[in-house]
């Protein structure tokens, strides 16, 4: 499942129940102007979701405002603009981001980084729809839809006094949590296919590589997965991506798994091979060489192998595959393997 932005630039890839729920909300939210607060770990796709909300029904511009990049004395002028001559270096009048967003969407990324004095000013814009550029004597107007994102616990920041309670209530009208990738591993094959399409024309990967990616926890979430594909495509010369092409973090993960003896059969078959490029495990008997397979077929295969290995123990198979039990049940149904 994919939600495309009308400019084609933003695609929300994923089909897990959690991602579908996000997509449904995106559709709904695109039709109103309520503030949205996106929550989630780094790399989960908060900005993609923000853009998707705007793009599903684009009114006015989408202005990203990275609060973590707004530092020092120029912050206020970046946000609110300034008039010519208001301070040394203000050689021309500058329109701030708040004014640029008028009539459209302002995306306040990392809103938890906004210092308290700027929080007060932002609150005023949200309440009164007005602000004053640095050095200006009159107020100006700006009315925009606000989407904010954070990977911090803002409620806790409020308790600590580092984030204003009144602003928090204003932002927290519709909180939308984007789940970490490890809690929606069903999205991994679709994301791999998506990024392979973006970065690696005609590339495909061995079953074992897919296994490793499905069982890894992705602490850097979708961004880490995207970088992983970029890395593998960049260093791989042929069309088939092998375990040896994985970045270090995943290599370590593979080694740990091997150490735990979780894939003893697979290890015996191929992992210890000195030249894995020549004989990926899935290329055995029935398959032609080179073993280029659809990702869904790879997934189905992985499930069959896991069940085979665990002699039908679904609980253990799910563990080996690095997915939840309910996900495995759903996939068994999808692939007609549920008997
Ligand atoms: N569902 C998705 N479909 C397609 N691409 C995605 C998806 N989720 C994330 N990405 C990609 O992963 C990368 C990280 O996403 P994004 O920048 O939106 O994360 P973030 O939650 O804003 O992270 P941070 O908190 O570090 O800013 C981007 O390149 C984005 O295109
Ligand atoms: Mg971001």
Task: Walk me through the structure.
The chain has 339 residues and is of the alpha/beta class. The protein folds into two domains: 178 residues, P-loop containing nucleotide triphosphate hydrolases (Rossmann fold); 153 residues, Helicase, Ruva Protein, domain 3 (Orthogonal Bundle). It is built from 15 helices and eleven strands. β6 and β7 form a beta hairpin. The N terminus is likely disordered. Adenosine-5'-triphosphate binds next to β2, α2 and α10.
Q: Any key phrases for this structure?
A:
339 residues, alpha/beta, five-stranded parallel sheet, two-stranded antiparallel ribbon, 15 helices, 11% strand, disordered N terminus, binds adenosine-5'-triphosphate, binds magnesium ion
CATH class of the largest domain: Alpha Beta
Provide the gyration radius in Å: 24 Å
CATH topology of the largest domain: Rossmann fold
The average pLDDT value, as a whole number, equals 86
